[in-house]
Specification:
By secondary structure, the chain is mainly alpha-helical. It has a domain at 14-123: 50s Ribosomal Protein L17, Chain: A. It is 68% helix and 10% strand. It contains five helices and three strands, in the order αβαααββα. It has helices at 14-31, 38-54, 60-70, 73-86, 125-200; strands at residues 33-37, 95-102, 109-115. A three-stranded antiparallel beta sheet has the order 1-3-2.
Amino acid sequence: MRHRKKNPHLGRKTGHRKYMLANMGSSLIEHKSINTTLAKAKALKLFIEPIITKSKTDSTHNRRIVFKYLRNKYAVTELFREVAVKIGDRPGGYTRIIKLGNRSGDNADMAMIELVDYNELYSQSKPESRRRRRRKKKSTEKIPSELANAAEEAPAGETPAEEAPAEEVPAGETPAEEAPAENSDTSEDLNDEDGKQKKEN
């Protein structure tokens, strides 16, 4: 029974498979990205990520463990000196698999596996800046449009209301004001005359 044995065999015996993954892992560390079939890329991802995690702590014990799997002292040196420094803050997910289509000879699924931190096209700074720009554009577009609508609606509604009473009130109020003013003057004059007459009497 082969229960709980899900590791991909890749059509090879154990010794051949281990050496092949060691060579591919060394090439990935040296060149930072390699092209291979999709099945091999997935197997290499499972193989290399625990090794990269070991390289975060630089000790003799970890170097010996990594050398046991990679079997290449130059790749081990490169991993502990350069790669581990660059991926030190990353909590996992050190590699990325990008599908490339089918191979023309045997129609096999091809893929590129690469170290995430060494690809400038998919760096983290660009998506953040895009998100910020989108948020700023949305917020700046909404506010001026609302203000513009309010500014357009308010003058359109207020100007006729203000102008109409302003034009009508002076025309209608001037005679009304003058008429009561004259009446009030005459009534005051009459009251004054009556008051004088009463005082004289």
